[in-house]
């Protein structure tokens, strides 16, 4: 962790963050596709429940 000293003698610690990974155009993983499909199904299910309630 990187620690800096602020005015007044207080210490401030910053966590070390992982490096970012840049995806190429058209590069998708199976987990991201599964997440999109699952999210769409969840939205449809919530809309159906809302329609049944009203």
Features:
single chain, alpha+beta, 1 helix, elongated
Question: What would your notes on this structure say?
Answer:
This protein is of the alpha+beta class. The chain has a domain of 25 residues. Helix content is 44%, strand content 15%. The chain has a two-stranded antiparallel sheet with strand order 1-2. It is elongated.
Rg estimate, integer Å: 22 Å
Distance between the termini: 53 Å
Overall body shape:
elongated
Classify the helix fraction into a percent range.
40-55%
Low-confidence stretches: none
Strand content: 5-15%
Number of DSSP strand runs: 2
- Strands ordered across the widest β-sheet: 1-2
Largest sheet: 2 strands, antiparallel
- The secondary-structure class comes to alpha+beta
Number of helical segments? 1
Order of helices and strands: EEH
What's the rounded overall pLDDT mean? 87
């Amino acid at each position: 962790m990187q620690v800096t000293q602020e005015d007044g003698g207080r210490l401030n610690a910053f966590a070390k963050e992982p490096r970012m990974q840049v995806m190429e155009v058209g590069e998708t993983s199976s987990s991201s596709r599964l997440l999109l499909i699952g999210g769409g199904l969840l939205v449809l299910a919530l809309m159906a429940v809302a329609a049944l309630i009203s």
